[in-house]
Amino acid sequence: MPGDRSTVSGSVVGRFHGVAPTTVQITNQKEAESNSKKQGGCRRWFQKMCPCCCRRQSSSYDITDTVITDDGVKPTTLPEPPQPHTGDNELEGRLHEATESVKFIKLMLSVRSVDLLSSKTGQNRLEHHTNLYHGNELIIRRGQTFQMELDLSRPFNSNTDKLHLELKTGPVPMVSKGTHIIIKLVEELEDNSWEAKIVKQNGNRIKLSVNSHHKAVIGQYKLTVMVKCPKQEVAVTHDPSKDVVMLFNPWCEVDTVYMDDEEEKKEYVLNDIGRLYYGTETQIGARTWNYGQVLDREEIKCGWISANPSLSANPSLSINSPDDNGVLAGNWSGNYVGGVSPTAWSGSVDILMKYHKEGGQPVKYGQCWVFSGVTTTVLRCLGIPCRSVTNFQSAHDTDVSLTTDVYLDENMEPLDHLNSDSVWNFHVWNDCWMSRPDLPPGMGGWQALDSTPQETSQGTFRCGPASVTAIRTGQVYHKYDTPFVFAEVNSDKIYWQRNLDGTFTQIHSEKKAVGHFISTKAVGSDERADITHLYKHTEESEEERIAVETASRYGTRPDVYSTPMAKDVSVEVKMEGEGPRMGEDAQLTIVVTNLSSQPRRTTLHSQVAVMYYTGVLKGTVQKNKLPVELMPNEVKTIQWVLPYQSYQNQLVDQAALMLTLSGRVSETQQVLATQTNFRLRTPDLNIEPEGDAVVGKEMAAKITFTNPLPHKLRGVVFRVEGLGLQKVREVVVGDVGSHSTVTLTEHFIPTQAGPRKLVAALDCKQLTQVHGVADIDVQNGNKAFVDLALLS
User: Fold this and answer.
1) What are phi and psi of 30, to 5 degrees?
2) Which end of the chain is more exposed for a tag (fewer CB within 10 A), N or C?
3) 227 near 152, Cβ under 8 Å?
């Protein structure tokens, strides 16, 4: 009966998606008739084994999840079906057949369930320092053992049964085609390899201790358990809720991101709140940033990092957007229509969630501190120790000369069209910690990484990782992008004057013009830590000069340091207290010193220009000439004033200005030149918590702001957020009159106990970089509410 054979075979092949079943071959009509009873028995056996049929006939055995996987079908050899009894008594035959089938099923080995022990309060998450991460996946760190439990269909016999685990990752564009790992059972676990060991057995349940390799690829793995008894092999597919997420492990001594100091690991890996620094070297401002290392499956799937953290150049590429629709779109124009002003952000979580919800479209808008804050979040999330770093007076070398060049005309006036190099008031990038096996010994440790799109590297906007040790010693020939970072922190500022024939002559140099007060948040406190000594030797020390001259040999002007300069007159600019305030006249002090025993005369050309914090000038707002006569060894002070009316309608983000002074000493032809950046201080938002801070209990905070300007602010918006306190919320305030004070009360319910921070930022086109923070110590409250809040 070919029809019957086709029906049976087709049914089984369809249900098992291509797995070849054992079938009954029919050669002729006579044989078909003689085997009709066998065919019926075979059909009944397949009905018992078929996933669709067995679900109706038996509630104790279901192989649906043990055959078909998300990736297709594992080749499975099914056992021979029990032979039907051919006696005359049909009832007796059926009973015999059923008895044989039950015996067979009892011998089969399958996996009923897999428990990855992924509870946040369980052993795995605690030992791997991932208990504070969001998500129900098993989140672990490579190079370390983890535990899992299996519920089998019968007790496991280690003498005859076989078991192994399979872990698979998806493909990572430009990095890997995907990883397939087979983990076999062993008697004893060894370090630095994928292995599993049965550590406990109780009836049908076994507990495995699984060891991961210290070079495992970072990302999300799909788990499959394979079991095999002498007569069959059955695969168990992973459940979507049973993914394994693998992170870098700074607690593992053989991991490339290993960090020895425990307090530093707490700060640079686990701390979800930090401080970012901005302003100028004489007016350093600080703002709180919520890193919020929220580990989301889609973030891991993006493939930012592979097994080698040196590829952390990829995050800098993936976080900015010019090349591949990264997380953030940069904007330095001052026009933020269609997005959020960079100064209005106060954390990374809102940005990353918006990026995810909008299908991978860049979030508008970011500037350097925003790029750095998001980078810190991503790298800490993945297990790489990371910190945000601010460099004040940060040079931007555009021609790889490893100098910052300033061009003047014959009359000592700046030639703006040639001055493409710039010095940013401040620039924020990242340090990430790792060994560098791709570089000579000694180059590991902190590596500079910059996600802000400034210049291209190998055709794309990315920068680093560059060894901080190589930067400090001037070894700019080491990868990646070390010359650019060196110039940011330790290039000399060279002044060039145009000659009558159009050529330029070097007339002056400043050896301490860039790379000041390099700052990051201190370990274990909110204080500012100065790490300048990690990036450069003491200014003008022999070691520092050797580093500068070593680096310059690899630049486009290796002979720039061949011209000696005689100096006996100096000029500098000083600032009183915290500096000028927004809405008032700006006052600075110019100090001119004569170090010689002879009189000296000069004329200082002063020019002040409104400047973006990147060092790009918007326009000049005031020019003056200041005649100066000095007696021998005299120190003369000159008060310099910029009226409010001169700058009130000219300011851009950060309210920064640059004062340029230049002149020539009549008696010696010595050139005097200096540039000073300063910003107009803006007010803080004052935040006062009200009521008891208890988990699950509503409390409030009063936020107060006073407009410092003599005119109305339009379209004021407050953005308020706090990790463990409340999600980001925008509060529309509207217009705020001249010198007027506005107060609002924000109500929220804390969801996490411990020290928390409530952060608020003002978003207004006419006034930027206004923010505030309040420390709130939240006490434990209703546990049921805590669990509900975490689930939501």
Assistant:
1) -65, -45
2) C
3) yes
| Confidence at residue 787, expressed as pLDDT on a 0 to 100 scale | 46
Task: Dump the DSSP string for 531-578.
Answer: -HHHHSPSTTSHHHHHHHHHHHTTSS-TTTT-------EEEEEE--TT
Strands 726-736 and 713-722: antiparallel
CA distance 19 to 13: 6
Catalytic residues: 368, 427, 450
pLDDT of amino acid 533 = 94
Q: Which amino acid is at 464?
A: G
Global pTM value: 0.70
State the burial class of residue 127 (Cβ atoms within 10 Å of its Cβ: 0-12, 13-18, 19+): middle
Q: Which of 169, 266, 666, 625 is nearest to 413 (CA)?
A: 625
How far, CA to CA in Å, does 40 sit from each of 43, 95, 568, 729, 739? 5, 15, 111, 69, 94
pLDDT-based confidence at 479, cuts 50/70/90?
confident
pLDDT exceeds cutoff 50 at 71: no
CB 225 within 8 A of CB 150: yes
Q: Within 13 Å of residue 758, how many CA atoms lie on the same side as its CB? A: 29
H or E element, residue 374: helix 368-382
SS3 track for 96-152:
HHHHHHHHHHHHCCCEEEEECCCCCCCHHHHHCCCCCCCCCCEEEECCCEEEEEEEE
Cα distance between residue 45 and residue 41, in whole Å = 6
Long-range contacts of 232-235 (CB under 8 A, 24+ apart): 232/76, 232/77, 232/78, 232/79, 232/108, 232/109, 233/74, 233/76, 233/77, 234/63, 234/66, 234/67, 234/76, 234/108, 234/109, 234/110, 234/111, 235/66, 235/67, 235/69, 235/74, 235/76
User: Any residues with CB less than 8 A from the CB of 347 and at least 6 apart, and which?
Assistant: 289, 290, 291, 292, 373, 721, 723, 728, 759
Residues in the chain, overall count: 792
How big is the CA angle at 718 (ends 712 and 721), to the nearest 5 degrees? Answer: 165
Sheet containing 528-530: give its strands across: 463-467, 445-450, 422-434, 386-396, 516-521, 528-530
DSSP letter (8 states) at residue 267: I
CB–CB of 570/665 below 8 Å?
no
Query: How many other C-beta atoms can be found within 10 angstroms of the C-beta atom of residue 286?
Result: 18
**Residues 587-621: pLDDT tens digits?**
999 999 999 999 999 999 888 888 776 666 677 88
Quick one: tokens of 49?
Answer: 């084994």
The arithmetic mean of pLDDT across residues 407-411, rounded, is: 90
Amino acid 252 reads C
Q: What is the pLDDT of residues 266-316, one digit of tens each?
A: 999 999 999 999 998 988 999 999 998 764 444 444 333 444 454 444 555
Q: 199 and 30 in contact (C-beta within 8 Å)? A: no
Contact of 728 with 746, CB cutoff 8 Å? no
Listed in sequence order, the residues at least 6 apart from 564 whose beta carbon sits closer than 8 Å to its beta carbon are: none
Residue whose C-alpha is closest to residue 582's, from 741, 763, 677, 707: 707
What distance in Å separates the CA atoms of residue 139 and residue 631, rounded to the nearest whole number?
72
Amino acid sitting at position 199: V
User: 492 pairs with which residues across the strands?
Assistant: 403
Which of 507, 295, 283, 479 lies closest to 380 in space, CA to CA? 295
d(C-alpha 220, C-alpha 167), whole Å: 9
Q: Three-state SS string across 569-603, please? A: EEEEEECCCCCCECCCCEEEEEEEEECCCCCEEEE
**What token pair was written down for 267?**
């700060």
- Give the integer Cα–Cα distance in Å for 322 and 324: 6
Annotated binding site for Ca(2+): 490, 492, 539, 544
pLDDT > 70: what percent of the chain? 76
How many Å apart are CA 569 and CA 66, to the nearest integer? 86
